[in-house]
Design a protein that fits this description.
- The structure is a homodimer.
- Chain A starts with a helix and ends in a 19-residue tail after the last helix.
- The radius of gyration of chain A is 21 Å and the shape is elongated.
- Chain A is mainly alpha-helical.
- At the A-B interface, helix 8, helix 9 and helix 10 of A face helix 8, helix 9, helix 10 and helix 11 of B.
- Chains A, B: It comes from Sphingorhabdus rigui.
- Chains A, B: InterPro entries: Homeodomain-like_sf, HTH-type_TetR-like_transc_reg, HTH_TetR, TetR_C_27.
- Chains A, B: One of its GO terms (molecular function) is transcription cis-regulatory region binding.
Chain lengths: 214, 214
């Protein structure tokens, strides 16, 4: 008889903590199902009840790693904030979440980033998801007359490049949190809105979705 | 009797080629003076006539690695180009020099970048030198009314962050030369000038160094 879903979920969560411990001890060295079973004090066949295979385990690790950032992106894009504030929050809150991980356990973060590099096929979907949410904000800004002459994809790519220091947690290890700051991030977001694409001819350009209702 | 300087210089250049070969074979693994002497087919005491110690060798490696970029920065800052073009050239030409290294021998570049990380004390001076030349361009732009409300250091730091994808050659390995392009780089430089700092009140603000000569 299959265990109730909640038990499986609880078991997975506990096993991901064991993965943390293994990564703390061994760094980004590849972890096999056998290693994880041994560290968790269970038989490999028992472990397979929680994760079908190594890929499923890696996907669960990635899901947990990105959960907070997805929560932030959903919250920000669904909010009623002005579009410039949305973009600021989109980058600043994710950046601060990375800083928190970095300051709590830099070595653990570094190892997970290396694991992510080694298994980029698992990470790619989350990168695309980030672009998807940024595209929603960019489209809203375009409706207000920003980024004229650029396609959504071009604007997303340029904005990602201009804010790269605040989205790639690896940069924390290069540049550090003294030179990086949310104050600077806000200035860069301002430069994005003021400077990216052709200038807006008028103060406010009505977007194509706006209809005159009178 | 000491050899003429030119012989020593020629020997150093040849030895740096041997270092390339060692790095090609072994990656970023630390190279000792003994290893280099063996690979060059000379005695360690002979090698010490070319490089006083390991630090001197590393400094010579860094000097050669950064030579082209320094040449570019000197040329651009000394040119008569308009300041916006200067900044574009400052970033674009260095970026293209990195792309050339990346496309010729990606593994060799990656290994040298890793060596640079391991011996950051040797690299730091070159990073500071880059900031020095960028500060010259920023000061010129400020004299023309750009970046109002920012100090030179703040502007240099923000601009470095906004262009980070085009200055850190490591990013070539993450993002690749499909998504990075000098066209996008030019758009980011435009956004820097149009969007960074307070807006310019008038079309042209005379700089403090300008004197009315009539």
């Amino acid at each position: 008889m299959a265990r109730p879903q909640t038990d499986i979920e609880a078991g997975r969560t506990a096993l991901l903590e064991v993965v943390d411990d293994l990564v703390r001890k061994r760094g980004s060295v590849d972890i096999s199902m056998t290693d994880l079973a041994a560290a968790a004090g269970m038989s490999p066949s028992n472990l397979y009840r929680f994760f079908d295979n190594k890929e499923a385990l890696l996907e669960a690790v990635a899901e947990r790693f990105f959960a907070e950032k997805i929560r932030i992106m959903v919250e920000v894009t669904e909010s009623d904030l002005p579009v410039r504030d949305k973009m600021y929050q989109y980058f600043a809150r994710r950046y601060l979440a990375s800083v928190e991980q970095y300051e709590a356990e830099p070595e653990l973060l570094k190892s997970y980033l290396e694991i992510g590099q080694q298994h980029f096929e698992v990470v790619r979907g989350y990168v695309d998801l980030g672009d998807h949410y940024l595209a929603i904000i960019v489209a809203e800004a375009m409706d207000q007359g920003y980024f004229q002459g650029l396609s959504i994809d071009e604007a997303v790519s340029l904005i990602n490049q201009m804010l790269h220091c605040y989205t790639n947690p690896d940069i924390l290890f290069y540049i550090g949190t003294t030179k990086l700051s949310v104050t600077k991030l806000a200035m860069i977001v301002d430069a994005v809105f003021q400077g990216l694409g052709k200038k807006i001819a008028t103060q406010s350009v009505p977007g194509s979705h706006m209809k005159i209702v009178s």
